[in-house]
């Protein structure tokens, strides 16, 4: 019983940063902007969250610092791609490189320091219920936040007027402009939301997952998040499914390696990626639905002709 | 009439000017629209009509001049302000969102937070009232162009505007759909609303408009009552000089069969594409077959299978001069003497960033390998002959350019189209397939292109012209066929074809319901 609960717990913990970063990027891409700098923003969030926690002694302030740092560095991306209409792919890649370099510099003096973990929820009685107690009532605050974010983004995109406007901009920015929607302003907001989410995802790594700072500690999770968004056809609940699937197979293959089954470890390490891609490709085989959900103006710079 | 003119105009512009770089797109425009009138804005492509209305709707910022609303100067800084003032707009290139539903599209144009359900009901009510049936929950991507236009009109009406601007509304409609639109306009006028109606179709303007303002090269060249003018006097105001007539005379008896398409079907490749169903088409040497139809009914899909951009499984489905060609690609078909001019000038017919000569080599490197390439398998470009051919094409088609060999994208639409058509004609193809040859091209260039197509047929080639422009179709075709939802009607001789019949075929009424004798039968008898 306890083993099952522990495995499920580790799966959720592994999936949470992917989910948060991907949900943020989903909003950015739904507005028609492709920010390939998720990895960079995440690692900045991780180091800033860790540093702020050590400096203030409060992991809560650390979490806040990570969110602000992610949003600020995404603002740089916004200025370059939205106000100056720079190429989004090139700028996004540069942002990742910048993030990795900058975080190494900021974090140099923190390497090896012991971190402070964000306290997990603990409700006497409820958290001790067998099997589900800790899964439902005993997790870290960022986990609950990630579910809230997924629900909130799905509701925002498909149930609110502002969400409709955001999707419209992603579908056709020229038409949106002709209707009098301020395309650039809304894209700025979307980009900064994506940055804040990536920062929070980074904070989960350095404040919950492994409370310490190691250079490049995001280890490619930003790229996985990017891929999840595309394979989930830009739909929030599918992103959640993809993130948990990836988490499950990553943890599952670790256990399989520990058990020493007769499969090359390299194959097992590649399994989470393969499984996620295969499953998401299969569920997105409905091309009509996929095309309907693909932001048609994704990655195209918008320059109003005034 | 008199008391109308005594009223303060609903909207007036004084010296309205818009400058893009060195181009004066609108140059001191004076315009006055009275309450309750349908006012036409006439002009060629590029005359500045769209620029003018974009300023009136707050999409573009005027460089000079002023706009008066009911006699008071106003500044319209955004479409939202235009709507608040009382101006509604139906765009030429629809400002719709394909991935969203009809109701969502309408909601986006409304200010404030009106719940979607209320918008659906209101949209349904208005669309019925104005005879524009719409399903609020349908996705725009699934709708025809006519239905899309209805969304735009209903969207504009929901804001209860006093002035409605329609930018080239009939350019995408069947004649029957256009008639419905005119009924709607009459209803709007009866309610006391004003309409600014932009068009380059004289017949329409004479039919429905009370007054007309004519633009040419960004300047007002005439203001008149269109009903008191003749089509040719209006055309002179629009174009300046007389436009050359196309002479179709001299198209001889058709010769051997050069293109034969038999029961060709092709599935749609994307959710937004059209499935071709059982297409039959025979084109003989010396014939110009025009394929009319409303945009989005399978024209580009048909072009793609004819050119070999998309191959079909059955090689026998397409025969070129008797040889099965269904599975051959573009280059193989070009080597058989075919030439193709796709609709999209930029990125499909030409690479905008490459020079004209570069584009020439790209399309003809295989068919003119001996002339253009050298060095055997190395395939080095033989610059001398390529430059000579570029020059020859440019002078034959009167391509106006500022450099000897400019990038294709720097040419105006009409000049680039003349070069692209000339590039294909220059090799004297036996078969030419061209999609929308004069779309967005000014009258002078269009008549030159049309004449060249007719001349090619006269010299004994088979020409297939896919076109939405009915005037063009009647001007150049020897036979006319209509494409509707991926089905092609039997070609009928242009001499016996009528606009009404084309309209019916465009709407999907096949096999001439109400026609005693099928004209196609008569044509095949000789």
Automatic annotation (TrEMBL), chain A:
Q: Could you give a GO molecular-function term held by this entry?
A: transmembrane transporter activity
Which parts of the chain are coiled coil?
Answer: none
Q: Does the keyword Transport apply?
A: no
What are the subcellular locations of this protein? Answer: Cell membrane
Q: Membrane topology per the record?
A: Multi-pass membrane protein
Name the Pfam families on file: BPD_transp_2 (PF02653)
Q: Does the keyword Hydrolase apply?
A: no
Any one cellular-component term (Gene Ontology): plasma membrane
Q: Which UniProt keywords apply?
A: Cell membrane, Membrane, Transmembrane, Transmembrane helix
Q: Where are the transmembrane segments?
A: 6-28, 40-57, 63-85, 97-116, 141-158, 188-207, 213-232, 239-259, 265-283
Q: What is this protein called?
A: ABC transporter permease
**Where does this protein come from, organism-wise?**
Hoeflea olei
Automatic annotation (TrEMBL), chain B:
Q: Which residues form the ABC transporter domain?
A: 11-242, 259-510
Gene Ontology molecular functions? ATP binding; ATP hydrolysis activity
Q: Where in the cell is it found?
A: Cell membrane
Give the source's domain of life in one word. Bacteria
What Pfam families does the record tag this protein with?
Answer: ABC_tran
Keywords assigned by UniProt, alphabetized? ATP-binding, Cell membrane, Membrane, Nucleotide-binding, Repeat, Sugar transport, Translocase, Transport
* InterPro entries in UniProt: AAA+_ATPase, ABC_carbohydrate_import_ATPase, ABC_transporter-like_ATP-bd, ABC_transporter-like_CS, P-loop_NTPase
**GO terms for CC?**
plasma membrane
Please give, as recorded in its UniProt entry, the membrane topology of this protein: Peripheral membrane protein
Q: Which family does it belong to?
A: Belongs to the ABC transporter superfamily.
Q: What is this protein called?
A: ABC transporter
Give the organism the record lists. Answer: Hoeflea olei
């Amino acid at each position: 019983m306890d083993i099952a609960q522990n495995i499920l717990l580790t799966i959720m913990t592994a999936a949470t940063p992917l989910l948060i970063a991907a949900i943020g990027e989903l909003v950015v891409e739904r507005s028609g902007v492709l920010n390939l700098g998720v990895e960079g923003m995440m690692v900045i969030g991780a180091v800033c969250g860790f540093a702020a926690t050590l400096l203030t002694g409060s992991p809560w302030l650390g979490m806040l610092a990570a969110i602000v740092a992610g949003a600020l560095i995404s603002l740089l991306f916004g200025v370059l791609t939205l106000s100056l209409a720079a190429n989004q792919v090139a700028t996004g890649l540069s942002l990742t490189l910048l993030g990795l370099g900058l975080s190494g510099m900021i974090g140099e003096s923190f390497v090896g320091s012991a971190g402070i973990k964000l306290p997990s929820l603990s409700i006497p009685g409820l958290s001790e219920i067998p099997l589900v107690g800790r899964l439902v009532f005993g997790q870290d605050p960022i986990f609950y936040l990630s579910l809230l974010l997924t629900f909130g983004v799905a509701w925002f995109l498909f149930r609110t007027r502002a969400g409709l406007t955001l999707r419209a901009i992603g579908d056709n920015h020229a038409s949106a402009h002709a209707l009098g929607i301020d395309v650039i302003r809304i894209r700025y907001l979307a980009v900064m939301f994506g940055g804040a989410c990536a920062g929070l995802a980074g904070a989960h790594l350095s404040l919950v997952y492994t409370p310490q700072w190691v250079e490049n500690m995001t280890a490619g999770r930003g790229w996985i998040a990017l891929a999840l968004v595309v394979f989930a056809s830009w739909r929030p609940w599918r992103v959640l499914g993809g993130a948990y699937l990836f988490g499950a197979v990553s943890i599952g293959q670790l256990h399989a390696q520990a058990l020493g089954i007769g499969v090359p470890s390299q194959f097992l390490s590649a399994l989470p990626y393969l499984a996620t891609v295969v499953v998401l490709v299969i569920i997105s085989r409905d091309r009509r639905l996929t095309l309907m959900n693909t932001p048609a103006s994704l990655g195209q710079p918008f320059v109003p002709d005034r | 009439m008199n008391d109308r003119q005594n009223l303060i105009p609903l909207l007036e512009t004084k010296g309205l000017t818009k400058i893009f770089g060195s181009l004066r797109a609108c140059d001191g425009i004076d315009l006055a629209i009275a309450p309750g009138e349908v006012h036409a804005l006439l002009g060629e492509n590029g005359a500045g009509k769209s620029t003018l209305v974009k300023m009136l709707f707050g999409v573009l910022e005027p460089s000079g001049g002023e706009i008066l609303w009911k006699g008071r100067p106003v500044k319209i800084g955004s479409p939202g302000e235009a709507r608040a003032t009382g101006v509604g707009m139906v765009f030429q290139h629809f400002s719709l969102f394909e991935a969203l539903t009809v109701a969502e599209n309408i909601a986006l144009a409304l200010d404030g937070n009106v719940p979607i359900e209320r918008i659906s009901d209101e949209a349904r009510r208005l669309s019925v009232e104005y005879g524009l049936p719409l399903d609020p929950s349908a996705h725009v991507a699934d709708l025809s162009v006519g239905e899309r236009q209805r969304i735009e009109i209903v969207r504009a009406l929901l804001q209860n505007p006093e002035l409605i601007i329609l930018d080239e509304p009939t350019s995408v409609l069947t004649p029957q759909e256009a008639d419905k639109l005119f009924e709607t306009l009459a209803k709007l006028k009866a309610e006391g609303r004003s309409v600014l109606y932009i068009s380059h179709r004289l017949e329409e303007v004479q039919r429905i408009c009370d007054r007309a303002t004519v633009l040419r090269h960004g300047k007002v060249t005439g203001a008149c009552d269109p009903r008191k003018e003749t089509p040719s006097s209006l055309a002179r105001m629009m174009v300046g000089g007389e436009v050359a007539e196309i002479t179709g005379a001299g198209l001889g008896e058709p010769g051997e069969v050069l293109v034969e398409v038999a029961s060709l079907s092709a599935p749609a490749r994307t959710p937004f594409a059209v499935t071709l169903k059982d297409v039959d088409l025979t084109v003989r040497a010396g014939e110009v077959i025009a394929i009319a139809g409303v945009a989005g009914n399978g024209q580009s899909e048909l072009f793609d299978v004819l050119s070999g951009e998309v191959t079909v499984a059955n090689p026998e489905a397409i025969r070129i001069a008797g040889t099965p060609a269904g599975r051959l690609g573009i280059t193989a078909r070009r080597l058989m003497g075919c030439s193709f001019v796709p609709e999209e000038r930029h990125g499909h017919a030409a690479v905008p960033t490459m020079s004209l000569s570069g584009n020439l080599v790209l399309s003809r490197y295989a068919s003119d390998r001996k002339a253009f390439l050298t060095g055997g398998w190395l395939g080095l470009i033989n610059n001398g002959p390529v430059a000579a051919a570029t020059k020859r094409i440019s002078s034959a088609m009167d391509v106006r350019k500022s450099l000897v060999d400019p990038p294709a994208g720097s040419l105006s639409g009409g000049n680039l189209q003349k070069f692209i058509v000339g590039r294909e004609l220059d090799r004297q193809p036996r078969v030419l397939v061209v999609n929308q040859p004069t779309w967005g091209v000014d009258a002078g260039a269009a008549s030159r292109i049309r004449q060249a197509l007719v001349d090619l047929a006269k010299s004994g080639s088979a020409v297939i012209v896919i076109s939405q422009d009915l005037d063009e179709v009647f001007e150049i075709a020897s036979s006319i066929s209509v494409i509707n939802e991926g089905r092609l009607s039997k070609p009928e001789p242009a001499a016996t074809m009528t606009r009404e019949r084309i309209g019916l075929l465009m709407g999907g009424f096949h096999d001439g319901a109400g026609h005693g004798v099928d004209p196609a039968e008569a044509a095949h008898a000789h």
